[in-house]
TrEMBL record:
It is found in: Cell membrane. InterPro entries: ABC3_permease_C, MacB_PCD, Macrolide_Exporter_MacB. GO terms for molecular function: transmembrane transporter activity. Keywords: Cell membrane, Membrane, Transmembrane, Transmembrane helix. Residues 285-401, 670-783 form the ABC3 transporter permease C-terminal domain. Residues 20-239 form the MacB-like periplasmic core domain. The chain crosses the membrane at residues 21-41, 282-302, 326-352, 372-396, 417-441, 670-691, 719-738, 750-771. The keyword Translocase does not apply. This is Duplicated orphan permease. One of its GO terms (cellular component) is plasma membrane.
């Protein structure tokens, strides 16, 4: 019986080639989108979830409130991990962990920048990172310990075994380090990659401030016993820091599972507010939308062609076929088309995978030997086959044979309304995708073009490291003379990466109970000019004034908080150091546009502190960038020969802050185009069917003098109405959804009415063009051919 189903299915597919191609192509495109998005979603959900002890691993979060504003993040005191092991019996292991740095890694005469972090001695005991050489107990035990990846071991020593026990040099320390462990390269599921780890004791030597409980910065991870009561641990942890601080800070500690930290990374007002998980949900919905659009094509075309199949159904029922066998026949056709579409989709995925990986900056793979691949193909195949074929199967198998064989099948109004409803649903989804794409595109354009308060063009960052810090004066002097160099200065961190804040700011008249939070950063002489920041009053730091070592620059947000009418020359105590305000700068964005501009204090950075994050800033003259870079490289290699020359463009670094938004925008564009294209495939088939149904009517109208335009209008207006209804339904849904998206940005565009009008007009134009192709063909046909049988 099943073989007969397949034979009949193949015959019907061959007999109706145009409709079969439309169905296969439409379903293949929908399945391709679903597969690509499914692989991306799988990758996102697996981030940091590969550890064997995953359910027992947590990171400590801190919620702080200053002047009524609450923030939350993973930054904690550097000594917290030690105390947790002492005071909490449930904690088996605990380790501090730092931010990402690129440090010079040297072995003999071979050196290069590598990704570095510092971690506590328990790190390898907690996380599933296989050690090829060394043990978890000794890997990070002493200040001189260093654990390196297989990649570094192979590159610098030839093999992990050859690397073990050897000494290396790392920037920022005069002490050599001994390779006490070699670990397997981290998988792509690791959200915070590194090439080598240094010990927590080494970090304490480099950064003594981590021993002060009032300072926050590093992160703290710990592992609990399998039987631990996490609610009890979190309750006791809440006010834990108050025992170690001289005064009670407005803070509390809480926990987040390590496996959730990547996806749930957005905290607003100290409360979890989503994060990357929202993109996972968004594109999961998009995948379902596009698959639904493709399935609707199949359902619509199958029910529209039901008259042609009605006599077949009637004859088969008269010959004794039961309804169940007819349902099986039509479902077999549906699954056959789905199977062909899956084969086509597999080929498309293989072709598109490199481009998709480049776009998403991932290393996704589609392997037919992977059980997950079979699972997703099976799920998509069953879902698509049943969804696309169930209604046509039950609809066609329900025809009354007596009525069918007496003459032409009369379609009910309900059947027509159902087909129209499917078209409306299709275009509602398509218009939602179009509106979403337009909004995301405009927001990204807004980000790119917004005046952020400093000039990103022709600005270069070079790390201040090695001998550049000790030869600072020579460096600045020689660079200033190089062709193409407009100005030179230094800064602790690039705008967008400022990460230091404090409540340790005092001024006359300050409310003793007030604890406002100030961002702070260091900047060198000539820094405002080099960055292109507008000076509103006073002056910037200058070597002419020795007192500038205790001078401060503040922004307008800080002035508003402090309350001085004329801030220049007014006293300001920062970190217990009394000084004066020498300049007022305009507000500029030193964080992303997701956040409001906060009060900022800039202190003098004279360039000779060994700040691992310190940067040399070089403003180049327009059109002279290449010449300036060549000059910078020559000086840096001469003054700092043991370090590779690296530089970054300010505008590129600015764009990296919004990489997720850019990926989302590009994916939205691609899927919106695919959605509307698949919808139009179905519309093309329906238009062809409608024109075929009304062939004799069109012939009579033409004989009676109807113009080609009037016939085209007749055939097109019903579809235009359907697109109009879809627009009315989609607009409020899109407005609601996109308002929520834009709320993630403190600075964002307004949703204008014309965006919805443009989306509706675009959908209408595409639909009319699609329908008009078939309408024109029908309108220009010879009426004699359609009427000769009468």
């Amino acid at each position: 019986m099943f073989s007969n189903y397949l034979k009949i299915a193949f015959r019907n597919l061959w007999r109706n080639g145009v409709f079969s191609v439309i169905n296969v192509v439409g379903l293949a495109l929908g399945i391709t989108c679903a597969l690509l998005i499914g692989l991306w979603v799988k990758s996102e959900l697996s981030m940091d979830n590969y550890h064997e002890k995953g359910p027992q691993l947590y990171r400590v979060m801190q919620r702080q409130t200053f002047n009524g504003e609450t923030n939350a993040g993973p930054h904690t005191p550097g000594m917290l991990s030690y105390e947790l092991k002492k005071k909490f019996p449930e904690v088996v292991y605990a380790a501090g962990f730092t931010w990402y740095n690129e440090l010079n890694f040297t072995v003999g005469n071979k050196f290069n920048k590598q990704k570095a972090r510092w971690a506590g001695a328990d790190w390898f005991k907690m996380f599933s990172i296989p050690l090829l050489e060394g043990t978890a107990e000794t890997a990070l035990k002493t200040p001189e310990s260093i654990a390196i990846s297989r990649k570094l071991a192979d590159s610098y020593f030839g093999s992990p075994a050859a690397a073990f026990g050897k000494t290396v040099e790392v920037a920022g320390s005069d002490r050599p380090y001994k390779v006490t462990a070699v670990f397997e390269d981290l998988p792509s599921e690791a959200s915070e990659p590194y090439d080598f780890l240094l010990s927590w004791d080494d970090f304490a030597i480099r950064s003594p401030w981590i021993k002060e409980w009032g300072n926050n910065g590093p992160r703290c991870f710990f592992e609990v016993r399998p039987d631990a009561n996490i609610a009890s641990v979190e309750k006791r942890l809440k006010k834990f820091l108050n025992k170690y601080r001289k005064e009670e800070f407005p803070n509390e500690l809480f926990l987040q599972r390590v496996g959730e930290s990547y996806l749930y990374n957005d905290w607003r007002g100290g409360i979890q507010n989503g994060g990357r998980i929202e993109y996972v949900r968004l594109f999961s919905i998009v995948a379902v939308f596009i698959l639904l659009i493709a399935c609707i094509n199949f359902m619509n075309l199958a029910t529209a062609r039901s008259e042609r199949r009605s006599r077949e159904v009637g004859v088969r029922k008269v010959m004794g076929a039961v309804r169940e066998s007819l349902i099986g026949q039509f479902l077999a056709e549906s699954f056959l088309i789905t199977f062909l579409a899956i084969l086509f989709a597999i080929g498309l995925v293989e072709i598109l995978m490199p481009f998709f990986n480049e776009l998403t900056e991932k290393h996704l793979s589609f392997s037919l030997t992977d059980p997950f691949t079979y699972l997703i193909l099976l799920a998509v195949g069953l879902l698509t086959g049943l969804l696309a074929g169930s209604y046509p199967a039950f609809y066609l198998s329900g025809f009354n044979p007596a009525r069918v064989l007496k003459g032409r099948l009369k379609f009910s109004r309900g059947s027509k309304l159902f087909r129209q409803g499917l078209v409306v649903f299709q275009f509602t989804l398509s218009i939602l995708l179009i509106v979403g794409t337009l909004i995301i595109y405009r927001q990204i354009s807004f980000i790119r073009t917004k005046n952020v308060g400093y000039d990103r063009e022709n600005l270069i960052y070079v790390p201040m490291e090695g001998e550049l810090t000790t030869k600072y004066e020579t460096l600045i002097t020689e660079l200033s003379r190089k062709p193409g160099v407009a100005s030179v200065s230094t800064i602790g961190q690039a705008p967008g990466e400022f990460g230091s804040n404090t409540i340790s700011v005092e001024w006359p008249g300050k409310d003793p109970s007030s604890r406002p939070l100030f961002e702070n950063a260091s900047i060198g002489y000539n820094g405002l000019k080099t960055l292109g920041i507008k000076l509103l009053a006073g002056r910037e730091f200058s070597p002419k004034y020795a007192t500038d070592s205790s001078g401060y620059l503040i922004n307008r947000a800080a002035l508003k908080l402090i309350g001085y009418k004329d801030p220049i020359g007014q006293p300001l105590k920062f970190w217990g150091r009394q000084g004066t305000i020498v300049g007022l700068v305009d507000d500029f964005h030193f964080h992303s546009l997701h956040e409001q501009i906060k009060p900022l204090i800039l202190r003098l950075d004279r360039g000779w502190d060994k700040n691992l994050d310190g940067l040399l800033m070089v403003r180049t003259e327009a059109g002279q960038t290449e010449k300036a870079i060549a000059g910078i490289e020559e000086i840096c290699k001469r003054l700092n020969p043991k370090f590779p020359f690296n530089y970054k463009f300010a505008d590129v670094e600015y764009g990296r802050m919004y990489r997720s938004e850019q990926v989302v925008g590009t994916l939205a564009e691609v899927f919106a185009v695919l959605g509307i294209f698949i919808s139009c495939l179905g519309l093309l088939g329906l238009a062809a069917f409608t024109a075929e149904q009304r062939t004799k009517e069109i012939g009579i109208r033409k004989v009676l003098g109807a113009s080609v335009f009037s016939v085209m209008t007749l055939l097109s207006r019903d579809f235009v109405k359907l697109v109009g209804i879809a627009f009315v339904i989609a607009s409020p849904i899109a407005w609601w959804a996109l308002q929520d998206y834009l709320r993630k940005f403190y600075y964002h565009i307004a949703i204008s009415w014309w965006i919805f009008a443009a989306a509706g007009l675009l959908a209408l134009i595409v639909a009319v063009l699609t329908v008009s192709s078939q309408a024109f063909r029908a309108a220009t046909a010879n009426p004699v051919k359609s009427l000769k049988s009468e």
